[in-house]
Amino acid sequence: MRRFSSRSQAHKYTRVSGDPMLTIDGSQGEGGGQVLRTALALSVLTGTAFRMENIRAGRENPGLRPQHLAAIKATAQLCQGTADGAEPGAQTLLFYPRAIKGGTMDIDIGTAGSVTLLLQSLLLPALFADKPSRITITGGTDVNFAMPVDYFAEVLLPHVRPWAEKVEFKVLRRGYAPAGQGKVELFVKPKLHRSSFATWNEFAAAVREQLQPIELTEQGSLVFIRGVSHASKDLESSRVAERQAHGAQDALAKADVRIRSEYSETASTGSGITLWAVYSMNADDINSIRPIRLGADALGQKGFPAETVGKTAVRRLLEAMNSNAPADEHLADNLVPFLALAGGIVTAERITEHTKTNVTVAHLFLGESVRIENNALTTRRQA
């Protein structure tokens, strides 16, 4: 049985639960990697060890895949923790966190596995590490079934930045399937340090006092729409990025729209477009503390006209905009762990199975602090 480990040290703070280890059914909810990624993040933050069984049991290729192994290894490194059972195809994992150290990390997924999905395990605990974290990840930046890096940067991170002294994110190189080999860098300088508090209750109280709850209840007024249309360098002669952008702009003719087109040297041919709509509750004054942003994207496919790719992204964005909700379905999903910690309310375009799964896992580590009421996620802030 493979064991990722680091130098031995005593656990520095008290777990939320008195149980020495949680047992988690990895097949619950959407039954995929989301259960594992959220469990890793909350395990590190709370100092709670867990045993996960039936990992991805319902998938065509069940058990741990390279991207999951990379997440386990990276999370263990972040917190000086250990993991037993981290082997390809394994359906049982034991994870033992320690104090969140932070530091410099260089992670290579080894496939086109999504860099942003891996960051779902690292971002939350890195916000409360002992020292700044500089995390470089190599893998897929724009791949199927994962938020693209531009969505991560422009829609999710604005909600996280107020929680830290500094958060920076750079796309160093694009990576499409099947080869991947894209590269990103995340830098986080914490404002609060988890190890500064002897108990969970002390830490939770500090979060409530010093960090803003997440309050997304109204969409407000549209200020502008921005986007990035990107493609591999070999598609530049066909003007794929520009055509994707034009397809999107034509479908959004009445709005203030600016879409940047760019090309990159990549290991595999590919293209895509990410759009985000920025709203405000106060005329044109955009609130950086309580941002309101909706996002959508589309990836290019062989035989799929570039203009249609742009229009597909617009259709998805308009679905979110026309819902009158201040959070699209993917943002709501990603905000669940943060919401469970800091409290607040998020009204979403819709509640997905991924969101429900995240709520279930958050309950295991943080108690039943998040409730689903119609299309809203609401919380009881912990006492």
Written account of the structure:
The strands form 4 sheets. This protein has a 5-stranded mixed sheet. It has a 4-stranded mixed sheet with strand order 6-7-9-8, with helices on one face. A 4-stranded mixed sheet has the order 10-15-17-16. The chain is 31% helix and 27% strand. The relative contact order is 0.13. The radius of gyration is 20 Å and the shape is globular. Helix 1 packs parallel to helix 2. The termini are far apart. The chain contains 9 helices and 17 strands. By secondary structure, it is of the alpha+beta class. It folds into 2 domains: 267 residues, UDP-n-acetylglucosamine1-carboxyvinyl-transferase, Chain (Alpha-beta prism), CATH 3.65.10; 102 residues, 2-Layer Sandwich (Dihydrodipicolinate Reductase, domain 2). A hairpin with an 8-residue loop joins strand 4 and strand 5.
Properties at a glance:
27% strand; 2 domains; Dihydrodipicolinate Reductase, domain 2; single chain; 17 strands; 9 helices; alpha+beta; 383 residues; globular; five-stranded mixed beta sheet; four-stranded mixed beta sheet; UDP-n-acetylglucosamine1-carboxyvinyl-transferase, Chain
How is the topology of this model organized?
Elements: E1 3-4, E2 21-25, H1 33-46, E3 49-53, H2 66-79, E4 82-84, E5 93-96, E6 103-108, H3 115-126, E7 133-139, H4 149-160, E8 164-173, E9 182-190, H5 200-210, E10 214-216, E11 221-232, H6 240-251, E12 257-264, E13 271-280, E14 292-299, H7 306-322, H8 329-342, E15 344-347, H9 353-366, E16 370-373, E17 376-379
Parallel strand pairs: 2-3, 6-7, 10-15, 11-12
Antiparallel strand pairs: 1-4, 3-5, 4-5, 7-9, 8-9, 11-13, 13-14, 15-17, 16-17
Helix pairs in contact: 1-2, 1-3, 1-9, 2-3, 6-7, 8-9
